[in-house]
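Input/output pair, single chain:
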Amino acid sequence: MRELNTVNCPPGAAVHAAPGALHFVLILGSEFSPSLKFRDAAPLTVKGP
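Output:
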């Protein structure tokens, strides 16, 4: 397992998260706020617990 700072998703493609593949590890008490960056739109930050 290794940390990724970015995940690229080409136009028309999908990124799937799954155990044993790309996934997110959240540590109790941590915050999860990924920023989604789009080619033709403003960035969007999603806030989670």
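Residues 15-49 form one domain. The mean pLDDT is 80.
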